[in-house]
Amino acid sequence: MFVIVLNQNNIIQDGHNNTLVYNFPNSIVFKDKYIAVSSIQMYYSWFNITQSLGNNLFTYTWVVGGVSTTYNINIPDGVYEIEQINKLIQFVCIQNGTYLINGDGQYVYYLELEVNPVRYAIQLNTYQVPTSLPAGYSQPANFPGYPTNTFNPVVSFPANFNSIVGYTAGFSSNPNTANGYVPPSPTQSNNYVAKDGFGTLSYLSNTFPNVQPNSSLYVSISNINNPYSVPSSIIYSITSSVAVGEQITERPPNFMWNRLIDGTYNELRIQFLGTNYQPITINDPQMTIMLTIRDKDESFMGSK
Q1: What domain count does the chain have?
Q2: What's the predicted TM-score (pTM) here?
């Protein structure tokens, strides 16, 4: 039995920090050998929303007169909770002038996302935009104008972003023009939409939100052929059970042995995959991976 150690010095320098290569000093003949993860130490540093994942965009629509304009909300690559996404909504509304200022100097926004912990859901609220400036209010210099009829901004969640908030791909909220919208009876298929006496529409996600699509990473290793796994190279998984930026320490209580394919090798290649089995970008390259290799007939921790 022997142990091999990989760290940031073994990372392939392609900017993604997801592939490590261990080069043996000489070519090694593997026959009846088994390998297992001894430990993994790395930092929780992979993003949940990125352009490459295609989950970084949704839209809202604003009406001036009778003309509708759709604004994109592009989310920069990063690790986001719903609170940060809602702050980005407010930032974009300020950029576009689609807000008002009340008598206390507070900015009034007409769409928001929030966590509804009781329902384990993400709640979308849209509010009635008035046809003229309310008493005591003021408007920003870049305010685009008022509608002919009151309306609620139409918020749309395209594919990929929809799973972050738990809505059906292509979901769009109702414009509630002139406050004439009558919500259907609440069902799971219509996101449990509700309306209050002020024309506010509230929606609940109808699937469980998946704010971090890659809450677990798969560890894939070359020279493995596991017929019961897809891909066949996966030997372990790690979970981001710490806060962003903190260190993840994985030490399996029992080694899960995987047979190495018989042959002659000069390297082992390890890769971190997301839940879609595609390589994932890890931002912090500081990591240490320890692997143990043993013979078929070598006892270890009571197993053979």
Answers
A1: 2
A2: 0.85
Q: Which residues contact 39 (CB under 8 A, 6 or more apart)?
A: 249, 250, 251, 252, 288, 289, 290
What letter represents residue 245's amino acid? G
Q: 34 and 293 in contact (C-beta within 8 Å)?
A: yes
Q: Are residues 218 and 194 in the same domain?
A: no
* One domain for residues 138 and 257: no
Furthest CA-CA distance within the chain: 84
Per-residue pLDDT of the chain (304 residues; tens, 9 = 90+): 789 999 999 999 999 999 999 999 999 999 999 999 999 999 999 999 999 889 999 999 999 999 999 999 999 999 999 999 999 999 999 999 999 999 999 999 999 999 999 999 999 999 999 999 999 999 999 999 999 999 999 999 999 999 999 999 999 999 999 999 999 876 656 668 899 999 999 999 988 899 999 999 999 998 887 888 778 899 999 998 898 899 999 999 889 999 999 999 999 999 999 998 999 999 999 999 999 999 987 765 444 3
CATH of residue 243's domain is 2.60.120
Q: Residue 252, preceding bond cis, omega within 30 degrees?
A: no
SS3 83: helix
CA dihedral 191, 166, 198, 195 (to 10 degrees): 10
C-beta of residue 59 within 8 angstroms of C-beta of residue 71: yes
Phi-psi region of 38 (alpha: psi -120 to 50; beta: other; left: phi over 0): alpha
Looking at the domain assignment, is residue 85 inside a domain? yes
Determine the length of the chain.
304
Cβ-based neighbour number of residue 29 at 10 Å: 9
